[in-house]
Known about the structure:
This protein has a five-stranded antiparallel sheet. It has a three-stranded antiparallel sheet with strand order 4-6-5. A two-stranded antiparallel sheet has the order 1-12. The mean pLDDT is 96. It is of the alpha+beta class. The protein folds into two domains: 4-63 and 199-302, 3-Layer(aba) Sandwich (Beta-lactamase); 64-197, DD-peptidase/beta-lactamase superfamily (Beta-lactamase, 3-Layer(aba) Sandwich), CATH 3.40.710.10. It contains 13 helices and twelve strands. It has helices at residues 3-17, 66-78, 99-103, 114-125, 130-145, 154-163, 165-176, 184-195, 201-207, 209-212, 227-240, 246-252, 289-302, and strands at residues 23-24, 40-45, 50-54, 60-61, 151-152, 197-199, 216-217, 222-223, 257-259, 264-269, 273-278, 281-282. The protein binds glutamic acid. Residues 63-64, 95-96, 114, 160, 167, 195, 260-261 line the site of glutamic acid (GLU).
Amino acid sequence: MAKLDTVVAEIVDEMRRIPDRGTVASYIPELACVDPDYFGIAVIEAEGNAVVGGDGDMPFSIQSISKVFTLTLALGKFGNRLWTRVGREPSGSPFNSIVQLEREQGIPRNPFINAGAIAVTDLILSGHLPREALGEILRFMQFLADDPTITIDQEVAASEQRTGFRNAALANYMKSFGVLDNPVDFTLGVYFHHCAISMSCRQLAMAGRFLAQFGSNPSTGLPVVQPERARRINALMLTCGHYDGSGEFAYRVGLPGKSGVGGGIFAVAPGKASIAVWSPGLDPSGNSHLGRMALERLAKRMGWSIFGA
Ligand code: GLU
């Protein structure tokens, strides 16, 4: 058995035995129903070898992980003009904080906190109907993952649309500063729906290969983004990808990554592998408890931390 197969099998076995599984997010009612016992992992190496373990083929709600892909899409359309709407600094605040927005005139700290991602979604929406923008985001995911079966979980989207008062507050607040161009309801509708895209670890690791491969999609050999842009998106994932647990994630795991409240984490070992893990229970910062632990073990045993051994 190759080393990666052994390491993944060990991690799946170890995660199965851990009794403390964290707390499943409950502020989106539909997510609260997910069983905390799930654990999945998928690792796709640079040469295309895929190692999938546990519940790695079970679809889950990717939530904030979608923000990596909407950022990629928006950068493709607007280039560096995007940075007039959104900053690039870690927030040090909870993912849905409104306080910082007031101090900083409605410009969100980074594209991965909710306010920043809503501003990015608003850019993608400009000049389109909500369903066109959403179709574009979904097709981009399907193209990257090489899998046309990826869909949006309409129940999760509806659940968040019914209860997303905090996001509505953030969006209205930004609108009052002129940071959003479109009607708030339209922007939020697209945002809730792209967060509700449902994917397995395997599909997510496939979709993120370009970030592990200096911008190229290994299926086509063509660039999705230029190497410089891939490097920058990875830098943002490292500094801002785990809410106000980003420093702890860099310290423990040492890989760029983005988590979502559905319990998924997408991570990149540049030049080596695209990785996705999923376990629905979260730690107090809102990151998958077992997911982070699994990535820490994987990075250590494979020697993949970008900071060395
Ligand atoms: N759709 C979720 C929200 O806006 C995403 C949160 C997350 O995964 O960080 O609250």
